[in-house]
Design brief:
globular, alpha/beta, 13 helices, five-stranded parallel sheet
Length: 352
Amino acid sequence: MMLREIDDQPRAIRTGLADLRRQASELPLLDADEIVLTGSGDSLFAAMAVELLFAREAKRPVWALPSMSVSRFPRASSSRLLVAISVSGEVVRTLEAARAEADRGSTVVAVVANEDSSLAKLAHGSLVMPTPMSRQTPHTRDYTLTLLALGVLCERLAGRRLRELDRWPSLVQETLPAAMEWAKSLLPAPAERTVWFMGAGPDRGTAAFGALKFWETGGSRSGWDDLEEFAHGPSLIAAAGDDVVLLAPGRAGTRAFEMLAGLQKLGLRPILISPEIAGHAVPSIDYPHFALPVLGDWTWSPFVTCLPVETMTYVYAMHRHIDVMLPLGGKPHGPVYNEVHEEWMRQSVLEA
């Protein structure tokens, strides 16, 4: 099922684009002074990934914030647009954030996959993405469709057609097979080793997404951080034999290249995901490199960097014989985890 979801992304993005553009044209006026993007889990990471794209195109202050930060720790604002993101539309803390902001006078737009969800009913307008194929696997297709919906909303705020969105479905279709073959060429680290994801700028969101995919894959050991901040902390706890995935498009590339030799000295395996590196002063060391295609400028990089991250997740899970359809990959306490997760996500108390 996870492979089916990965492979379905070009079709789902292509067909979803036209429908989401139609929906966006029917949204209420979006002339707020500032924009807050919020959600939890993948939804928050998608918000982080497009925060700088929104800021540039909408030409107003934009923040990507966790749902609880929005609901319980408000910021003063004269006029705000809240973009509340939840595939199910039923995550309690995101509902709380949307209700709190609506009560403060903000315009609320929901990004959901269910037009009858609680979040869609609460919002002033909604963008409804294509229905998920499954919610049992580490989510891949749902994440890219969330990026799609947010990209279309950004287009509406910009007041112009963003041609990168038109090119994206074909680029995904071309990139996925290459990303899968590249991931298969890696020798996955043993299950007891940690896989670190590092990103800068908009790809901090992609790094967080990568770590969460591994966590969802049977609770696999993984972590993430800002590319620069890894050198100031997490590198102290990274252990020899760990993989370090460097998401390095755009201006992140020069810093990532500087770190390659040091990572190897620490006994870590750097894995570079970046555009072609010709012309850069790259250390003459061996490391896996996925040559990332370019969709647009650096604000668009998360729309592409997520693809090799998805294929890595799938390949590592298969290599480690993890059944991603089972709670925690079939570990004995998997059903208990699912029960607690459901309680935390859906049954928490909504604060006034």
